[in-house]
Amino acid sequence: MGYYDVDEILTEAEKIPCTFNLTCPDLGYLDNNPSAPLKSGTEVSLPLWLAELLALPIPGSEADSAYATIELPPPLSQEVVQALKADPRAVPLRDQSAHFYSLATRMLDLFDEKELTAVLRKTFAVRAGEIALHARKGATGAGGGTAEDKASNLGVGGAGEEFLRGLDEWERRLFRKAHDGAKSGKEWMDGVKKH
Amino acid sequence: MYGDLGNKLVQHAKRTQNLTHLPPYQTELVRNVAHEVRDLDKYTKSILEQLGDSFDPNTDQATACTLTVSHLAMRRNKRCLLAYHRTRTDKLEELVWSGSDIADLAGQQQQRAAPGGAGANVSGMNGDGASSSLSPQEEDYMRQYSDLLAAYKGQWTDIDLTGSLEPPRDLFIDVRVLKDAGEIQTEYGAINLTKNSQFYVRQGDVERLIAQGYLQKLS
User: Fold this and answer.
1) Phi/psi at B193 (nearest 5 deg)?
2) A70 to chain B, closest Cα gap in Å
3) What stretch or stretches form a coiled coil here (chain A) (predicted)?
């Protein structure tokens, strides 16, 4: 986390649907049409770094007026939420967004969505358990992991592969940590036996 | 769209994080992002000049919005540039600590005496034509950081701060010479390291040469 955090910067590049509340003569390029003015009511997808601040109320004017109104982005749409409710493990989060959780966290700063928060929390908890399982399997070789599997970044072959491909960045980090931890533990145990 | 180039730069940074080596510096991309910032600045200034002192953001919201967008785009680009360079300098520092030479990184087999215990006389060619993956500023940074680290390490002559953390099993090891490394001086006299020869030497004397890839440790 922080100003220099590469993942955070990439999260801010995610596109958010925005609706402009005023007509801007010079901002047509945001709608891929530089010669025409950007009309009030136009819907455009803007990166989070821009959308977030355009959606803030304008200081000194009446309440809840802003340059633009934002909505929840597609990765957090009702469809995805429904799928997550049904089975968190069956949804490849990475296909929604490589920074799914950090995007969600940022959006929940802006929206008050209690239900979404609950769904996401449960999603993470369920998936984390699954991740830990796969990480252990890969590290100890108990799941039929060959030497080649262990050498690769995601040390698991077979059934879990598809699930692991669907991990977002945060989950990947978690997986790697769990994997490395189990592996180091095993190495240490082997070392103890030897001497 | 403004900020797209900066985003590309950060994607490069992201890739760099997962690599062991340092990919080439994106001179072109960095220049273009800086250019974008300059253009935006010019644009903002021209708007403000046209309006003069009469500009009131509350009444002229469309202009205020335009200016906000340019400002945010500039700020975003700045952050992308800084994050990209920070990622690289972090990597450089890591490389210095692990004992990499700036010459190795520059892809040059320069003649260079290894500091520390082994006063190696390394023979090689001056490959000036090889393109460096570092920008000139980064090379400078690395050189100065190496000096800084050397000065810091110099305070403790009996401990090698960048040495291996693994305790050695034996004081002496078998090594095979992979590249001609010239003659080195040890406590037990001089050894001439010619390619494909094999020696039984004290580990401390050759540790650096192993790290540099001149020697291979035989178990």
Assistant:
1) -90, 95
2) 15
3) none
* Tokens 């929390």, located at residue: A121
Query: Which residues on B lie below 8 Å from A22 (Cβ)?
Result: 61-62, 65
Residues in B touching A58 (Cβ below 8 Å) = 58, 61, 64
The ipTM estimated for the assembled molecules is: 0.81
Q: Has this prediction a pTM greater than 0.95? A: no
Token code pair at residue A19: 């609706």
CB within 8 Å: B72 and A58: no
> Nearest 5°: phi and psi at B200?
-115, 100
Is A25's CB within 8 Å of B68's CB? no
d(CA B116, CA B61): 66
Q: Which residues of B touch A (CB under 8 A)?
A: 1, 3, 7, 10-11, 13-14, 17, 57-58, 61-66, 68-69, 72-73, 76, 79-80, 82-83, 86-87
- Containing A194, the helix (H) or strand (E) segment is helix A169-194
Q: For A56-108, write each residue's pLDDT tens digit.
A: 887 666 656 788 999 999 999 999 999 999 999 999 999 999 999 999 999 99
Amino acid present at A112: D
| DSSP H helical ranges for B98-160 | 102-105, 136-153
Question: How far apart are alpha carbons B91 and B94 in whole angstroms?
Answer: 5
Q: What gap in Å lies between CA A97 and CA B30, rounded to an integer?
A: 26
Angle at B110 between CA B125 and CA B126, to 5 degrees: 40
